[in-house]
């Protein structure tokens, strides 16, 4: 048993310091059963959207977020990990008191970070649900502070030091005992042979002094070792915090000093975009792009498992540098990125299983977006689909259906690179509470239409309704996106 425990500790230590794919738990900010108001707001935004691609992002869409730290020492923030944008921004301590959205969230203080570098260039990021304004800064950004690694390392260090203290103290104690015994024997011999009182007194005094000195030595050794323990633990904790997480140095990000009121009620503090730098404000290098350049991940890929279970404690897992086989089955089907910026690719078609009904005929562009709740598509096609499914329209453009009919809904099949990816009725509908007291349940069909502006090619946005059913991997190195069936 003792050998097994040691082996587990050693294996954990090795995994903490090895450069392997890292699995970061992420959380869902709003559960499907009580977010009807939010979804209606999204529908209103999309129905009114009449501008270019930068306005495709509605911040209130995003559900999945996780922890990062910025600076040295690290200042903690919760950010949305969003494949549909490319900038990192967080609130700044320099935002005015009148900015309610900023004041309600964690704020970055550049004066408290020893690794902060001033940039100062202004930035503005426009979302459909509001704007964020501020200035650019540089600092260390760390993702995944591994508490398990810290605990294991601290335990190992403390155990080693305790063993050293015990061994050291034991050796000193043995030496003291030997000296005392020898001195006592000398005293006895002197008493028996010489019988001189003065000599005996001197020897007794010597014994007492030696014992006192030995005790002091032991105490000093213990104190010194304890101080060393504290220093070593602090150093190791800092080192493991760096190694167990992924620390990107000299990362440029936005310090937001002005946020519109739309951000007041969002639990996360900011957003970490995981798209390509082509859509990054001011073409700022992205966090993941810098991870690849600084060789912080074993492979230039990241992947998402999004948990759509209502009662689940975890919202999912973001894996940096690889995939997490425990969350998917089968092989990945890959589609090439056709236009860098978003994770955009060519979708073959969308069909209703068992029926002669096809959308996206001849192929159409689509993007995989973890920051969008529903599946979004061209207004005309989505309206056709929702009507075909028997949905009843709401004033905001969403469609609802009696929950008792969900089990009889046909699969909606998304064809990607020659392979079908079906969604069942239970996967593309969401139960939501409505009524004055939230005592009435309706089922919302998870397809939302956009009237695209003439300057923009119509496309489909495969949001969390799709990505919750299919594990997604984003291959930065080969510019492709892969999908496999999630283990939900």
TrEMBL record:
Gene3D superfamilies per UniProt: Acid Proteases
Signal sequence, start to end: 1-18
Entry keywords, A to Z: Aspartyl protease, Disulfide bond, Glycoprotein, Hydrolase, Membrane, Protease, Signal, Transmembrane, Transmembrane helix
Coiled-coil segments on the chain, per record: none
Pfam families: Asp
Residue span(s) of domain Peptidase A1: 64-484
Gene Ontology molecular functions: aspartic-type endopeptidase activity
Protein name per its UniProtKB record: Cathepsin D
């Amino acid at each position: 048993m003792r050998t097994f425990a040691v082996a587990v500790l050693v294996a954990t230590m090795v995994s903490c310091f090895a450069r392997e794919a890292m699995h970061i738990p992420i959380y869902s900010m709003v559960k499907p059963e009580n977010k009807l108001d939010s979804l209606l707001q999204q529908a209103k935004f999309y129905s009114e959207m009449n501008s270019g691609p930068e306005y495709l992002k509605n911040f209130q869409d995003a559900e999945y977020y996780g922890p990062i730290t910025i600076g040295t020492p690290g200042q903690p923030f919760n950010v949305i990990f969003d494949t549909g944008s490319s900038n990192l921004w967080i609130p700044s301590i320099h935002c005015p008191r009148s900015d309610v959205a900023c004041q309600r969230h964690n704020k970055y203080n550049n004066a408290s970070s020893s690794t902060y570098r001033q940039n100062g260039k202004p930035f503005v990021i426009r979302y459909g649900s509001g704007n964020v304004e501020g200035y650019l800064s540089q600092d260390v950004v760390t993702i995944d502070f591994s508490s398990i690694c810290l605990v294991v390392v601290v335990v190992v260090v403390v155990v080693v030091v305790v063993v050293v203290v015990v061994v050291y103290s034991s050796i000193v104690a043995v030496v003291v005992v030997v000296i005392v015994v020898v001195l006592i024997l000398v005293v006895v011999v002197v008493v028996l042979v010489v019988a001189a009182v003065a000599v005996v007194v001197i020897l007794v005094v010597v014994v007492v002094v030696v014992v006192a000195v030995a005790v002091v030595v032991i105490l000093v050794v213990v104190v010194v070792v304890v101080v060393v323990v504290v220093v070593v633990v602090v150093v190791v904790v800092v080192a493991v915090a760096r190694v167990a997480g992924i620390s990107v140095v000299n990362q440029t990000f936005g310090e937001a000093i002005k946020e519109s009121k739309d951000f007041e009620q969002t639990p996360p503090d900011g957003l970490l975009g995981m798209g390509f730098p082509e859509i990054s404000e001011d073409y700022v290098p992205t966090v993941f792009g810098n991870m690849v350049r600084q060789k912080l991940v074993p492979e230039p890929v990241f992947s998402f498992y999004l948990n759509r279970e209502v009662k689940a404690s975890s919202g999912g897992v973001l894996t940096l540098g690889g995939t997490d086989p425990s969350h998917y089955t089968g092989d990945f089907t890959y589609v090439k990125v056709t236009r860098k910026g978003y994770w955009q690719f060519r979708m073959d078609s969308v069909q209703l299983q068992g029926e002669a009904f096809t959308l996206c005929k001849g192929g159409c562009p689509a993007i995989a977006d973890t920051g969008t709740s529903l599946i979004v598509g061209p207004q005309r096609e989505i309206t056709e689909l929702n009507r075909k499914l028997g949905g009843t329209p709401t004033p905001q453009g969403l469609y609802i259906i009696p929950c008792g009919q969900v089990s009889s809904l046909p699969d909606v099949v998304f064809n990607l690179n020659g392979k079908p990816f079906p969604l069942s009725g239970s996967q593309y509908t969401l139960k939501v509470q409505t009524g004055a007291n939230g005592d009435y349940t309706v089922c919302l069909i998870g397809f939302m239409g956009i009237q695209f502006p003439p300057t923009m090619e119509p496309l489909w946005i495969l949001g969390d309704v799709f990505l919750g059913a299919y594990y997604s991997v984003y291959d930065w190195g080969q510019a492709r996106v892969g999908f496999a069936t999630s283990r939900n």
